[in-house]
Fold this sequence. Notes:
Structural class: mainly alpha
CATH class: Mainly Alpha
CATH architecture: Up-down Bundle
Number of domains: 1
Largest sheet: 2 strands, antiparallel
Order of helices and strands: EEHHHHEEH
Number of helices: 5
Oligomer: single chain
CATH superfamily: dinb family like domain
Amino acid sequence: MTTERTPDSNVAVERQRPPTTADEPTTLEAWLDFYRDTLALKCEGLGEEQLRTASAPPSALTLLGLVQHLTEVERAWFRRVLAGEDAASVYPSTGGQHDEGFALLDEVSAEQAMTAWREEIAVAKRNCANHTLDTTAMFHGAEVSLRWIYTHMIAEYARHDGHADLLRERIDGETGV
């Protein structure tokens, strides 16, 4: 496990490197957790205004918007698709396809958004614990396995962590992790 500390933070965010010789379920969950922790590291030590800053114009993307979006993505795949729950959106859509959560609301603080994201991750972990990788669910008329969902989520987080890296660098020069 590596403990990394951002310059503005007294709180260490721990991120565990995925094992190199684990079984498939452990490997997939560990990689997803690694990328979840990477997003937390990108946000660590920043204030409310910084998390709300669209730092790479002309894009309106913010770190807080990424957290909110990934809250929606966690909810969609692990509650609606995998568990078949009728779980309403946490954040409103701005009208585009796959844009849920990106729009910031004045009444939602960064602390509230981070808490909602962590809660969705906890629910996702509980839902996954009840299924094997071969469990399937319906998504837009096709079956998807939990293995496929994990792989999709790893790619989703990896892509958005790249965005977060650029946004963070533009905010305060912090790179890496």
